[in-house]
Amino acid sequence: MIQTTARTTARTMTRNKNVHVLTAAVSVIVLLGVSAVIAFAQPTHPQGNSDRGSSAAAPTSAPQAPTASSAQVRVMHVQGNVYVIAGAGGNITAQVGNDGVLLVDSGYVSTTDQVVAAVRSISDKPIRYIINTHIHPDHVGGNAAISQQGSTIAGGNVVGDIGASASQGATIVAFQSILDRMSAQDGKDKAPEKAWPTDTYDGPEKRLFFNGEAIEIIHEPSAHTDGDSIVFFRRSDVVSTGDIITMAGYPIIDVERGGTIQGIIHGLNRLVYQITIPAEKQEGGTMVIPGHGRVCDQADVVYYQEMVIIIRDRIQAMIDKGMTVDQVKAAKPTLDYDPLYASKGFWNPDRFVATIYQNLKDQHEKDQHSKAQQWAP
Amino acid sequence: MKHLRALKYIATVAFVLALLVPPLHAQLDPTGEWDNRFHEDEPERIPGPEIGDYLGIPINDAARLRADTWTATLLELPENQCRPHPSDYSWRGPALLRIWKDTDPATQDVVAYHTHISWQAPEQTVWMDGRPHPPDFAPHTWQGFSTGKWEGDILAITTDHLKEGWIRRNGIPRSDRSTVSTHIMRHGTYLTVAVVIYDPAYLTEPFIRTTDFAYNPQQRMAPYPCESVNEGGRPEGVVPAHLPGANSFLAEFPANYGIPPEAARGGAETMYPEYIAKMKSMKTLPRPKGKHSDR
């Protein structure tokens, strides 16, 4: 029916156009004293060249996410020294300069060649660092192959102690738990040794200075996993969040690897209140490269943070009413956000809701236990 | 024959002269200073829409729940205070409007039109040079990425890469997946802007709305700086929202205006005149005594 309305509007517009053409024609007649036939022959619009804006998308063709089969690795400049490489699994951040190339994450193992080609399209310098935001294969799959194509800046005592091999391969930086999981002999995340982090940290933060820029690698405990890192490029004013933000879906909480909804919210709050600063009118300023999906700024992170907190609060309120997990799922507390974030895959809204439910229940029990211990004689 | 020859002569001279005069499109150039007309949709635009008034908007259940649980307190948060209206809504706000254009010095072709609107000073660029839209992983902005072309006398604009916005300032969302088609039409000293929103996330049909402006060459606009402050002393990480089913204000609009609550919930059906007949068979809430009852 709206098409009818649209057609009516279009007819009105056409009538308006005709009125203008007639008015124009009359004007020409008055001006020149010639026949209306000639006036109508005059082109109304030099800009009326329909080719001029022909590349504009048709109104109904809203941007669609590429399918897996059409996915291809693409590069886009974000800000300062920082680029994003998309289409290789998780988003890869590339910081480039005279010192070399630093990557945040390395994509799937299957896209390594495309990632290296993408890097080469923006820099001919060696790849020096790969920083892993977390352990999942769409973010660390290229560790081994890509690091082997790079080199570490090494010298002095280091080279003296362990020889020239110290400079072979790029340095892989990650939180300690990633190395623990990759190197565990019986672990699910066991990985080839060449994929292991070579430079780990286990405190709240690790700092680097590379390509004339201070880089903060900030550990976000128990968020998407227990080994998450946020990487903040301070001069370029760009932050890579890993999968604490996935613009294409609800944040995945990998409970098996230590993830929690509280950690996700803590990470989002850190991004909103401590790291990102918008430029004019809540736009631009610090740019944010999420684990998946489009490049963002603070306003986008705020929308995402608000969504997660609102859903958490709804589920908490239902728990407080004594509802079971099945009752909570049936109440569809994510209904209003599902058109934006629902996946039909494994991380569907029911699973997201059930995970938050269990996280909150567990947290409640933990809090009760702490209180009991505090007041114990 | 003499008359025919004379007519041919006049026609030829006129044709040559016609080529020499400025092109007629100059009469329809949208550039200049434009003043808004707030008596158009005044109740919605100045005091603001009523909470729970979704009439005439083709929203789906998801949008309805977003709006039901929305509270204006959200706008108090420092991170939300300086948001401008997105380009599809900014025409509706306190919208003194300036339009200007960039031309290529070599060809004199129009490369881009720009708009500046008074409230929060957002500026939209409409590229006329046929450039492609950015890739899907590029950032979205409040004003989006726009390309335009002339369709007769109408400047037709397609905008995507928008941040999430609002269709009505009572919580009805417009998603960042939307594509917006804008038509700018000049009628002498009046300008009509027709905006059509295609939102695959929150609308079941396109939503169309027009806004009018009057030419005002004496118009001056002040700058609009914005600095956020902590207004409520709310702890970080607290997001004001109504819980589903707990917004007691939703009943006020249908009760005050004698509208069936079912109709107030909106949806595509409520856009069309036939719906008025259907509404007559629906139950209404008792109208409270007061100024609204007199309407």
Write a structural description.
The complex is a heterodimer of chains A (377) and B (295). With 377 residues, chain A is of the alpha/beta class. Helices cover 39% and strands 19% of the residues of chain A. Chain A has helices at residues 2-32, 36-41, 112-120, 137-140, 143-148, 156-162, 176-183, 261-275, 298-320, 325-330, 338-341, 349-375; strands spanning 74-79, 82-86, 92-97, 100-104, 127-131, 171-175, 199-201, 205-210, 213-220, 228-233, 238-246, 287-292, 296-297. In chain A, strand 12 (287-292) and strand 13 (296-297) form a beta hairpin. With 295 residues, chain B is of the alpha+beta class. Chain B folds into 2 domains: 32-215, no CATH class; 248-294, no CATH class. Helix content of chain B is 16%, strand content 25%. Chain B has a 9-stranded mixed barrel with strand order 1-2-3-4-5-6-9-10-11. A two-stranded antiparallel ribbon of chain B has the order 7-8. The radius of gyration of chain B is 24 Å and the shape is globular. The model of chain B has no long low-confidence stretch (mean pLDDT 91). Classes of the chains: A alpha/beta (377), B alpha+beta (295). The interface between A and B is large, with 87 and 93 residues.
